[in-house]
Amino acid sequence: MTYLTQKPRSLFIKTAGPAALAALALGLSACSKSEEGGTVAVPTAPQTSTSGAASSSDKAGIDIGMLDGGGSIQSFDSPAGYQRDAKILTYEGPGWESDKVGYRLYLDGRNVLDIFGKKTPGIVLPKVGRGEDYHAMADWGMDILKVGNSLGAGGWGVFKAGKAVQVGDADSYSARVVTDTDDSATLEVTLKNAGECKADMTTTYTINAGERLTHINVTGDCARPVAAGIVIHPGTEKLASGGKDGWQYIARYGEQSLVPDNLGIALFYKAGFAAGVRDDDDDSYVIFRKTGTVDYVTGAAWAQEAGGITDKAGFAAWLTETQAALNASGK
User: Fold this and answer.
1) What is the number of domains present in the chain?
2) How far apart are CA 95 and CA 239, in angstroms?
3) Which helix (H) or strand (E) holds 161?
4) How many Å apart are CA 190 and CA 16, to the nearest integer?
5) What is the Cα–Cα distance from 85 to 13, expressed in whole angstroms?
6) ∠ CA 288-241-273, rounded to 5°
């Protein structure tokens, strides 16, 4: 097997194993941020923190980590034969984080978000999945959500036969770091001929320092209406704003983490772009009008987050404050 991975300020080639996996070298790109080159148009994510100005300890970051060697790369293109459980990326896809929470994307036909609960504000993802089980509690925290067949923590899929379903396998997958600074980090993901969409779909995921939110922009001419949702776990309670104008939200709260302990998950959407808000067996979700572009925001609040939200009343207050901040942003 031949492939590229990244060390600070250098690239090296590692060769081992059968030639059957040598095609991996063609599908994987590794480069420093200065070598990445070019820019893409990424919608500016509104600053919506409700805890005042971000402090100097607040950070944001992205990690696309390799299982082999444990290094991080700036871009990834799936090799021939790539599928679920490919055992190439450290936690099955790219991840991003703020000082409050982390997320990971399943870079395959699931295309949904999972949550890394963080007990420390420091950047942790570049070490996650490198020889440890991230489903077990560590000093930094752990993977805290069971996704199953759902849309997870605000992932997008499609509305089909009266349900929200995962988008399904694409011909190929790519992910690249667009920006990665202490203040803000943006990841771009492209699915070629994406499953139920039968079209190329590109998504940007942006997280800002000091926030729990991921700002999501989806573009592409999907054959079906795009739906975004949050998983329904037994014993959780649904919260919804129910307004008809501006930014609105759906959310679920309760003992739904894998610990188990309290976890709140929310999805904020613009009412004017929603064709419907529903529940099915797996998800509470929003169906978006077919416009070619979808913008929404998702976020999570875990009971063990340092200085975080520990009960439903606190989570409800955060939902109201975040909704007001989004509406005030004018985005």
Assistant:
1) 1
2) 27
3) none
4) 29
5) 23
6) 20
Which amino acid is it at 269?
Answer: Y
Residue 313's φ and ψ, nearest 5 degrees, are -65, -45
Question: How many Cβ atoms from other residues are within 10 Å of residue 71's Cβ?
Answer: 20
Is residue 221 classed exposed, middle or buried when 0-12, 13-18 and 19+ CB atoms within 10 A define those classes? exposed
Distance CA 319, CA 207 (A): 17
| Residue 66 domain-assigned (yes or no) | yes
Sheet hosting strand 274-279, strand order edge to edge: 163-165, 153-160, 226-231, 283-288, 274-279
Domain carrying residue 169: 56-329
Per-run averaged pLDDT (10 residues), the chain, 331 residues? 32 32 39 35 53 63 96 97 94 98 98 98 96 96 98 98 98 98 97 98 98 98 98 97 96 98 98 97 98 97 96 98 96 78
3-state per-residue secondary structure call for 93-147: CCEEEECCEEEEECCCCCCCEEEEEECCCCCCHHHCCCCCCCCCCCCCEEECCCC
Residue 31 lies in a domain: no
**Residue 82 resides in a domain:** yes
Q: Which tokens belong to 68?
A: 């082999």
Amino acid identity of residue 105, one-letter, is L
Q: In which element (H, E) is residue 22 found?
A: none
Beta-sheet pairing, 213-219 with 293-302: antiparallel
The dihedral through the CA atoms of 291, 175, 96, 74 has a sign that is negative
Residue 160, CA distances (Å) to 188, 191, 224 in order? 25, 19, 7
Domain membership of residue 288 (yes or no) is: yes
Q: For residues 79 and 26, what is the distance between their CA atoms, to the nearest angstrom?
A: 7
Instruction: Count the Cβ atoms, other than its own, within 10 Å of residue 12.
Output: 11
